[in-house]
Design a protein that fits this description.
3 domains; Arc Repressor Mutant, subunit A; single chain; two-stranded antiparallel ribbon; mainly alpha
Length: 229
């Protein structure tokens, strides 16, 4: 039995209450025997359920079933993010041979958990559109040609700057409006003050934001609405 089919069966048992909210799944050894797969094969089947929040592994206890009503929302969010990233790959927003923004940055952009982002990226990796490099991140590849990893992953502040730049140019932060405070940006991106400051400094050098001394806030400039600015 394939891991995909096992995933579907277990998801169905959660949905129909066979494995109810707050209960622990049977031991992995027992489930592996039931489905006729190895322990590794079973873990492959359980991973998508963990990524989308259906299951949560607790050391010494097993795999706990969380709120089923919330899990389908996470699964839908993951599918939608997959669709958006696929579109960005197609139009070269994320070009072959470049690094994808980190999962933390993407999670902040889409307002989801990092686990949901990881679930969204998995099918694109399976399709050989993305490849992961341990400790560095995920980069874009061509499924028909071998592609070497980019020289280095972007720094965290550069990735944050890219997200804010896109918001400025799309009008999320309209010209002459204040950006979120440093504290709000630190909380959103899970970054320290110096990282946020470095990200905003990049945008100031590009003329996309400016600092107003009277209230110490960062504002979008008029030129930020110009896609060629």
């Amino acid at each position: 039995m394939t891991p995909e089919l096992i995933t579907k069966i277990i998801r169905g048992r959660v949905a129909d209450g066979t494995y109810g909210r707050g209960t622990v799944l049977p031991a992995e050894k027992r489930l592996a025997a039931e489905f006729g797969v190895s322990h590794w094969g079973l873990r492959q089947a359980l991973q998508p359920l963990k990524d989308t929040g259906i299951l949560h592994a607790i050391c010494g206890m097993g795999n706990l079933v969380l709120d089923p009503s919330a899990t389908y929302s996470a699964a839908r969010e993951a599918r939608e993010i997959t669709k958006i990233i696929r579109e960005r790959l197609a139009d070269d927003t994320y070009a072959v041979g470049t690094w994808l923004p980190g999962t933390r940055v993407l999670a902040a952009e889409f307002d989801v958990s990092q686990a949901t982002v990881q679930a969204a990226l998995r099918p694109l990796k399976q399709e050989k559109l993305l490849a992961a490099l341990d400790a560095q991140g995920t980069y874009v590849i061509d499924p028909h040609h071998r592609c070497a990893p980019p020289p280095a992953a972007p720094s965290h502040h550069a990735a944050i700057g890219k997200v804010i730049r896109e918001r400025l140019r799309s009008g999320v932060y309209p010209p002459d409006s204040p950006l979120p405070t440093y504290a709000e940006l630190e909380s959103e991106f899970g970054a320290g003050h110096s990282t946020i400051s470095s990200a905003l400094q990049l945008l100031r050098e590009e003329g996309l934001v400016s600092r107003r001394q009277r209230n110490k806030r960062i504002y979008a400039t008029v030129s930020a609405s110009d896609p060629d600015g």
